Amino acid sequence: MSDINLAPVCGLYCAECQFLGKECQGCGYVEGKPFWTSELPSGICPLHDCCRNNKDLEHCGRCKEMPCNIFLELRDPNLNDEEFQASIKDRERELKKRTMVGTEDWLKEKSED
Questions:
Q1: Which residues lie across from 39 on neighbouring strands?
Q2: pLDDT of residue 1
Q3: Ranges of the chain whose pLDDT falls below 50
Q4: C-beta atoms surrounding 38 within 10 Å
Q5: Is the distance from CB of 9 to CB of 27 less than 8 angstroms?
Q6: CA–CA distance from 102 to each of 21, 22, 105 (Å)?
Q7: pTM (2 d.p.)
Protein backbone atom coordinates (compact mmCIF):
# COMPACT_ATOMS: atom_id res chain seq x y z
CA MET A 1 0.00 0.00 0.00
CA SER A 2 1.26 3.47 -0.90
CA ASP A 3 1.83 6.14 1.74
CA ILE A 4 -1.02 8.67 1.53
CA ASN A 5 1.01 11.09 3.66
CA LEU A 6 3.35 11.60 0.70
CA ALA A 7 0.48 12.93 -1.45
CA PRO A 8 0.06 16.60 -0.49
CA VAL A 9 -2.83 18.79 -1.62
CA CYS A 10 -0.72 20.75 -4.13
CA GLY A 11 0.01 18.07 -6.74
CA LEU A 12 3.59 17.40 -5.78
CA TYR A 13 4.82 13.96 -4.63
CA CYS A 14 6.77 14.19 -1.38
CA ALA A 15 8.98 11.20 -2.21
CA GLU A 16 10.53 13.31 -5.01
CA CYS A 17 11.39 16.16 -2.65
CA GLN A 18 15.02 16.77 -1.77
CA PHE A 19 14.01 17.63 1.80
CA LEU A 20 12.13 14.40 2.58
CA GLY A 21 13.76 12.65 5.52
CA LYS A 22 15.88 15.70 6.28
CA GLU A 23 13.92 18.86 7.05
CA CYS A 24 10.53 17.22 6.39
CA GLN A 25 8.83 13.86 6.81
CA GLY A 26 6.13 14.52 4.20
CA CYS A 27 3.27 16.99 4.08
CA GLY A 28 0.72 14.56 5.45
CA TYR A 29 2.92 13.65 8.40
CA VAL A 30 3.54 17.29 9.32
CA GLU A 31 -0.08 18.31 8.62
CA GLY A 32 0.85 20.98 6.09
CA LYS A 33 3.62 22.45 8.21
CA PRO A 34 6.88 21.61 6.43
CA PHE A 35 10.01 23.42 7.57
CA TRP A 36 9.56 26.38 5.21
CA THR A 37 6.23 27.37 6.75
CA SER A 38 8.07 28.67 9.82
CA GLU A 39 8.74 31.72 7.62
CA LEU A 40 5.01 32.37 7.15
CA PRO A 41 2.85 34.31 9.63
CA SER A 42 0.32 31.46 9.73
CA GLY A 43 2.96 28.73 10.17
CA ILE A 44 1.10 26.46 7.72
CA CYS A 45 1.12 25.97 3.97
CA PRO A 46 -1.68 28.18 2.62
CA LEU A 47 -2.74 25.48 0.13
CA HIS A 48 -2.97 22.82 2.82
CA ASP A 49 -4.81 25.16 5.15
CA CYS A 50 -7.34 26.12 2.48
CA CYS A 51 -7.86 22.67 1.03
CA ARG A 52 -7.79 20.42 4.08
CA ASN A 53 -8.66 22.68 6.99
CA ASN A 54 -11.09 25.15 5.41
CA LYS A 55 -12.69 23.14 2.60
CA ASP A 56 -12.16 19.58 3.91
CA LEU A 57 -10.95 18.37 0.49
CA GLU A 58 -8.41 15.65 -0.19
CA HIS A 59 -6.44 17.80 -2.63
CA CYS A 60 -6.69 20.95 -4.75
CA GLY A 61 -7.80 18.98 -7.80
CA ARG A 62 -11.13 18.41 -6.08
CA CYS A 63 -11.74 22.15 -5.65
CA LYS A 64 -14.08 23.90 -8.08
CA GLU A 65 -11.88 27.02 -7.82
CA MET A 66 -8.74 25.25 -9.04
CA PRO A 67 -6.46 26.94 -9.96
CA CYS A 68 -7.08 29.66 -7.42
CA ASN A 69 -4.92 32.67 -6.54
CA ILE A 70 -3.24 30.78 -3.69
CA PHE A 71 -2.24 28.00 -6.10
CA LEU A 72 -1.05 30.45 -8.73
CA GLU A 73 0.86 32.71 -6.34
CA LEU A 74 2.47 30.35 -3.79
CA ARG A 75 5.97 30.13 -5.15
CA ASP A 76 9.19 28.31 -4.38
CA PRO A 77 11.66 31.23 -4.26
CA ASN A 78 14.32 28.99 -5.80
CA LEU A 79 12.43 28.81 -9.11
CA ASN A 80 12.80 31.37 -11.86
CA ASP A 81 9.68 32.58 -13.71
CA GLU A 82 9.86 29.90 -16.40
CA GLU A 83 10.40 27.09 -13.89
CA PHE A 84 7.56 28.40 -11.74
CA GLN A 85 5.12 28.45 -14.68
CA ALA A 86 6.19 24.91 -15.62
CA SER A 87 5.65 23.76 -12.03
CA ILE A 88 2.11 25.17 -12.06
CA LYS A 89 1.30 23.27 -15.26
CA ASP A 90 2.87 20.05 -13.90
CA ARG A 91 0.97 20.25 -10.62
CA GLU A 92 -2.32 20.98 -12.42
CA ARG A 93 -1.75 17.96 -14.66
CA GLU A 94 -0.93 15.73 -11.68
CA LEU A 95 -4.00 16.91 -9.76
CA LYS A 96 -6.28 16.23 -12.75
CA LYS A 97 -4.79 12.77 -13.09
CA ARG A 98 -5.09 12.12 -9.35
CA THR A 99 -8.75 13.19 -9.47
CA MET A 100 -9.43 10.81 -12.36
CA VAL A 101 -7.57 7.69 -11.13
CA GLY A 102 -7.77 8.22 -7.37
CA THR A 103 -4.96 8.94 -4.96
CA GLU A 104 -4.06 5.31 -4.29
CA ASP A 105 -3.49 4.51 -7.98
CA TRP A 106 -1.77 7.86 -8.49
CA LEU A 107 0.63 7.04 -5.65
CA LYS A 108 1.30 3.57 -7.05
CA GLU A 109 2.16 5.07 -10.41
CA LYS A 110 4.37 7.76 -8.86
CA SER A 111 6.27 5.22 -6.74
CA GLU A 112 6.98 3.12 -9.87
CA ASP A 113 8.53 6.07 -11.76
A1: none
A2: 53
A3: none
A4: 8
A5: yes
A6: 25, 28, 6
A7: 0.91
